[in-house]
Design brief:
The structure is a single chain. With about 290 residues, the protein is α/β, with parallel strands linked by helices. The strands form five sheets. Strands 7-6-3-8-9-15-14 form a seven-stranded mixed beta sheet, with helices on both faces. A two-stranded antiparallel ribbon has the order 1-2. Helix 7 links the parallel strand 8 and strand 9. Helix 3 crosses helix 4, helix 3 runs parallel beside helix 10 and helix 6 crosses helix 7. The longest helix is centred in the C-terminal third of the chain and has 19 residues. The chain starts with a helix and ends with a helix.
Length: about 290
């Protein structure tokens, strides 16, 4: 098996810190040098006071798999970048935070090197990604009735499974956002972080329908060397056990809105998810203005 993996370029690649990034075959099949960004044009932009989106990112790099090997992950640059572009073009501003204020971990191996819009975005946000705000500080000081926020955004990448699903501060922020009438946006593996909203009173999203990266696909990706081993736990399985219904079967471009929760299935959904998130927020803020 190892010999065949080597021939077909399906061996995960060892990184400098002893983790593994996806194999050359997985990079070829699962990433692209460009995106399907549609330009982000909006006929009207939001001009009110609740014009900010709180983007909760991971600061952890390595996900330990069931076999003990570490997967070099973080937030997926397309799943984070395309929704950011749509939201900003619709008149919203992005506040970047991580659990402790440490730098955002980004899956650089998935960066679309020939996409000018994404490249410019990451140059413009280089300082914000290197010096984000602190989720702990936000939870302690900023969850007020008059906070200028329209939404909380949790971008995808397997990194959303690190430091967020069991984060008490994120749980507080998700409950605050829900009670304050804000939208919550989560893409691909981003819904894993929604697990933080589970407490003794129950799960905040019990009974919701979502699109999310399917467990069935995560179970297959080690075959091509995308992951260096089986997942340590399964996102859909945990969400389903808490009453969430996952409505997509494939890692496709599907998106969904259930009440004030906007979700998308995979990197293929990043553009349509970004547009859906932006138009949903525009409708919400217009109705409340």
């Amino acid at each position: 098996m190892g010999f065949l993996r080597k021939i077909f370029g399906a061996q995960p690649q060892l990184t400098a810190d002893g983790a593994f990034s996806p194999s050359p075959l997985a990079i070829k099949l699962g990433t692209s040098s460009t995106t399907d960004y549609d330009g982000g044009a909006y006929t009207e932009c939001y001009e009110g006071t609740r014009n900010r989106v709180l983007m909760v990112c991971t600061e952890e790099r390595n996900l330990t798999m069931a076999n003990g090997k570490k997967f070099s992950t973080g937030n997926h640059p397309v799943e984070m970048g395309l929704p950011m572009l749509h939201l900003m073009n619709a008149g919203f501003e992005i506040d970047v935070i991580t659990p402790t204020g440490a730098p955002v971990a980004i899956e650089e191996w998935a960066m679309p090197a020939e996409d000018g819009d994404i490249q410019k975005l990451y140059r413009d946000f280089a300082d914000a990604f290197q010096n984000p705000g602190s989720l702990a500080d936000f939870a302690a000081n900023s969850m007020t009735d008059d906070a200028p926020y329209a939404a909380v955004f949790i971008p995808g990448g397997h990194g959303a499974m690190l430091g967020l699903p069991n984060n008490a501060d994120l749980g507080k922020v998700l409950h605050w956002a829900h009670n304050a009438g804000l939208h919550t946006l989560a893409l691909c593996h981003g819904p894993a972080a929604l697990l933080a909203a589970n407490n003794d009173a129950g799960f905040l999203y019990d009974g919701y329908k979502i699109t999310v990266f399917p467990d069935a696909v995560d179970k297959q990706t080690p075959i091509i060397g995308y992951l260096p081993g089986p997942m340590p736990w399964w996102v859909c399985e945990k969400l389903n056990a808490l009453g969430v219904q996952t409505i997509n079967k494939k890692a496709d471009s599907s998106t969904h809105v259930d009440r004030r929760l906007v979700t998308g299935a995979s990197p293929q959904a990043a553009n349509s998810f970004g547009r859906l998130a932006a138009t949903t927020l525009l409708k919400r803020t217009e109705a409340n203005s």
